[in-house]
Amino acid sequence: MNTAPRAGSTPAAPRQARELLRVAFGPSLVALVVIAAVVLLQLVIANSDMTGALGAIASMWLGVHQVPVSIAGSALGVMPLLPALAMVYGTARTTAAAVTHTSWFVTRWVVASALGGPLLIAALCLAVIHDAASVLTQLQTPDASRAFASVLTVHLLGAALGVGSRLGRRLIRPPLPAWLPDAFRAAAVGVLALTALSAAVVAGSLVVHWSTMHDLYSITDSLFGQLSLTVLSLLYLPNVVVGAAAVAVGSSAHVGLATFSAFTVLGGDVPALPVLAAAPTPPLGPVWVALLIVGAVSGVALGQQCARRALPPVQALAKVLVAAALGAAAMALLGYAGGGRLGNFGDVKVDQATFGPAVFVWFAGIGALTAAMSGGFAPRVRKPRPAPPAEDLDDDLESPDTVVLPPESIDAAPVPEPPAEPPAEPAEPRGQQKPVREAFGPADIEDFADPEDHFVADDDMRSDRDGTTH
């Protein structure tokens, strides 16, 4: 049997090695190239030398993974969510492309590569920042444990999404329920619906507060400055959307001393970022209370997704609750990642004590009601009882507990009585015999009148045998 590879085909080992390298360093290197281009462009436009360029690139790469950056004693903990989400998407896509079959050996190597490569780059970035901080006193080295934890979390989420999208239901093994993938899908639909509707609310609010946004753009007269503000607004747009989602489900968002919720607004100083013009201004009108419809619609989307496969009531309710818990955990994670310290403005965050529980209540309550109304709760099917055997039926009829209906309740024709039998003759006492005359009739006695007529001689028998007559 010929086992040589065909012409034009790639051997398995080198191909798998290239796939593992792509998974390990592909998204991270792409991010490094983009960051380097932006930093170099900034330095060229500012007519500055290249001193500290490597430290800035390394700091921005860690900032993409939500690692706080400290410059000149001022902490920048609120990092934009858009680059982190792009990194999660890139890791998930490369991981899914590398997992081509269900071999656990290959899957473990793919996941290890997706985590090991970024951790190695994170260690190199920390070393570069530490070396640059010795030259640039304004640059400070971030906390190593926080840096490794953030990088690991971002790429672990991407690897999990990639492997889950490729293998799907094959990962579910007992005692895990078979409906668990449907719960993950329903949670994703609920989160996407909540964020999409919140983004639509942010867009509408920006249109309403167009004059405020124009005033924020007027802080700079240069085209490059306005372009930089636009890019920053796009990068921080997911952060604002998460804050709008917190307001929509009944929680609150905070920017320093300013507090925003669907019921009250407390003013305060906010950064001069055009996208923050979407924040409501006091006095609060009734239109912001209508934001609660966003949470209800998101719960309906989750419930409809759960109702696609009908289950018994207990399992269907468990699926809705698990999907609601997963969706609430995802939104709470986004709220935590989108917040942090913003220099002199204070903390930018959502109220974590109420944000996750509020999302869970909307998803679980409205989702369960929608799933029940959409046919997601399958009715219980009662199995017919088998007929009892014939012996058991006879025993039941002969048992003393059997209820016999009265004759007048039975509408049936009367049964005819059988004919009466003649009376039996009395039995003869033992030891007595009837006389011959009583035992035989007169004709029988005449047959015994001449006994010689009934005798047969030997000669008669011989003649009959020889055919002669005597």
TrEMBL record:
Residues 451-470 have a biased composition (Basic and acidic residues). InterPro entries: DUF6350. Keywords: Membrane, Transmembrane, Transmembrane helix. Pfam families: DUF6350. Residues 415-426 have a biased composition (Pro residues). Residues 378-470 are annotated as: Disordered. The chain crosses the membrane at residues 20-45, 65-89, 109-129, 144-163, 184-207, 227-250, 257-279, 285-304, 316-339, 359-378. This is Membrane protein. The lineage of its organism: Bacteria, Bacillati, Actinomycetota, Actinomycetes, Mycobacteriales.
